[in-house]
Amino acid sequence: MPMNNLPKKPIIIIQIIFVLLYCTKVWAQVDEIRLIRQRIVSQLKSNPIKAEEVSRLMNNIQSDGSFKYINYEDLSRTASFPQRKHTAGLVTLAQAHETEGNPYYLNKVLLNKIILATNFWVENDFVGDNWHNNQITTPGNLVNLMLLIGEKLPAELVNRAQPIISRANMNASGARPSGDRIVIAGILAKNLLFIEDKATFEEIIKIIANEIKFSTGERGMQHDYSFHHRIDRVNNTTSYGYGKYANAFGEWCDYVAGTKYAFDKDKINQLVDYYLDGVYKQLVFGVYEDISVKNRSIANRSTFQAKGTLEIERLLRSTSYRSKELKEIIKLRKGEVTPTLSFAKYFWHSEHFVLQRPNYYTTVRMFSSRNKNMEKPYNGPGITTHHRADGTNYLMLKGDEYHNIWPIYDWQKISGTTILQKPELHDGESIQKAGIMDFVGAVENGQNGTVGFDFTSPHDGTKAKKAWFFFDQSYVCLGTGIKGDKGFPVATTVDQVLIRSPISTLETGKKAVLLPDGNHKFRQLKWLYHGNIGYLFPVESSVHVTNKVETGRWSDITDQKNISNKIVSREVLKIWFDHGVNPQNGSYIYMVFPGISESELKSLYVSGTPYSILSNTKELQAVKNKEEQEVQAVFYQSGNLLLENKLNLKMDSAGIILLQLLHGKVHSMSISDPTRKLKEITFTLDGLYKVLNKNISAIKNKQSNTTFFTLKMPEKEYAGKSITFQLK
């Protein structure tokens, strides 16, 4: 039979099958798009809206669609864009209108109010002086409004809102690689769902999916799991890196889970690593805000409360990776368990050290020639933060020890810092400065750590060699080479903290007493006890203490408008060393014992601390813990250190070390290069050793009974990281 006479029915059937398969695929994609949108809308409706709030908002909408309580005139950066309350209010009203069970569910009067107020915004199109309001705040609120209720708004009004929402796009100035890029991409993705642009939605989801990665430039997630929002390399981990970058990725990870748009598991797992090893290790017990990481936002009043669990619950729906640790954080945040985790971690890209024990959390914040000292006071807040990275050492047993202290704070007596006591701070515009010194860093073995800071103030030239030695349950603070030449005193502050219990002190030749309120100067203070923390002063030196009511205003520490100028009064404890005017070689030594009772501190003073100060010079600062058999040292240059009888360490370069001793020999060692310039570090130890590490060479000299070590140091993104190894 000729080919052209074959029956055509089979061909038609095959064509129908292909059409059906294609349509099935398209329908599946449509269903997935609808599913993702439904998930977003469900999340928007998940927080119950109180009827009283809806009534308040409705009653404040005037005949032209504006809200009575909003000042629409001031669009300046320091006004904080009060207009945002308008679009945020629209979202709240839409949530109430669309949520079953709400008294205003599908209320026609409410819908008309929403239309009226939306029209007012679209007609006026308020554009603030801060790009963030125009590219994130307003588009974010309006796209949520559209997803909730857009189909019930007049089509013409929806169309007029689109250009405003579309300011969130990948060519926007704020869409640079940082915490804002992923947020803008998310707003754009939501709008593409609303207008049903599936092709572009798929492109934007790919952009979001690829945002979780280590930064090879200057912005984004660093290789130590800290986060830099800007090219100044200031630590922004728990602000932009948490509230925006990480949470935005986690949000979309949850929205697209189980669909063709689902993110790669490796990316999700890297996000888990970032949360657990970066974000949560810079929160007090993984629960409360660590004020050490805060920048200009420290000038804003805050509420002391545990962080939420939503971002963790989202992760657990997407991966089982490190789920036990994630679930532990949930329990901690819900108050179901108490902290158990002990760790030491140095974020070498951000010059930030953290140590946690189940009963306390402490940090050291610094800066170096590799980064700037502090965030600029963008838009007004934080105009007093000049010295907050000058070796700041906050100590928290609960997390609220410094909560909202800032309007009454003495910004030239910051806990841990050595600061020139000027008549007043420089202006806010001169806060951010480039670091001067290379030698800034720390060594840690995961549990204990040593911090070294060759400090020169870029504001006034004050100099100091500062070191912190963190052992298991307490730490030692050393300072030397303190120098100033500006005609003002220089002070090192032990702590400035809210008073939460009576204060006890002991002076040489006197009995321990409760300290009355006021100003005190101790010539031979031996110890001070406050709030389950003991401060011990082993060397006789002049120590100043004030414990009294301090006053101030929130408006004193910001250039933002509409900030309360009401007097704030709180009782504050300040402890500091006065090194005098124009000191040339000032020094200090003090020890900190967190989480102990006063009787334990008294016993410790009588029996003696476990610490020996091996050196506190401009060349070498070193401490030995005799009970833990651990030596920690900061070598600012090459030199020798006698670890114990007949056990000498000779360093051929600068470096920071942590040594564990056992039976008169070194059992394990951690070392780092705080200058980030050395390809290798060499040193010699008394005794014959071998080491099983391909990056470490150990050459024995039986004649001299010594071992010469050569260590290859981490380079590029890992320069500054610690190396830990065992010796045999």
UniProtKB/TrEMBL annotation:
GO molecular function: carbohydrate binding; carbon-oxygen lyase activity, acting on polysaccharides
Cofactor(s) demanded: Ca(2+)
Keyword presence, RNA-binding: no
Domain Polysaccharide lyase 8 N-terminal alpha-helical: 54-319
Database matches in Gene3D superfamilies: 2.70.98.10, Chondroitin AC/alginate lyase, Polysaccharide lyase family 8-like, C-terminal
A Gene Ontology term for the protein's cellular component: extracellular region
Domain Polysaccharide lyase family 8 central: 345-597
Residue intervals of the Polysaccharide lyase family 8 C-terminal domain: 612-682
Domain of life, source organism: Bacteria
Keyword terms of this UniProt record: Calcium, Lyase, Signal
Single biological process term from Gene Ontology: carbohydrate metabolic process
Family, per entry: Belongs to the polysaccharide lyase 8 family.
PANTHER family in UniProt: HYALURONATE LYASE (PTHR38481)
Subunit and interaction comment: Monomer.
UniProt name for this protein: Polysaccharide lyase family 8
